[in-house]
Amino acid sequence: MNLYMDDYRRCPPGFTLARDAEECLLLLREYKVEILSLDYDLGPGEPTGLEVAAGMVRERLFPEQIYLHSSSLSGRRQMYEMLYDNLPEGVQLCNHPVPPELLSSIEGRERR
What we know:
By secondary structure, the chain is an alpha/beta fold. It contains 4 helices and 5 strands, in the order ββαβαβαβα. It has one domain: Response regulator (Rossmann fold), CATH 3.40.50.2300.
């Protein structure tokens, strides 16, 4: 499964959408996630992507690849630093959105 956490943006094809931190952590606990793309701001008064990153670290819920697509530079930096400091060997962490060529590849696999 590929997981996309965002409260506002449209979910890319080939990804499962989590609209909030609780749903994202639940899906990470219940499914094998290959690619995770995280937003930081999830709405006023709601837990942020940093809480998801903290939960991932606390519970050791690391997918194979993690991308940070947040437009919040400070939020993205905080998530990156927390995850980077606790990253298991073999997990790829990228401080940018999923590249368009990877999105196209995933979408192509979904169409088959």
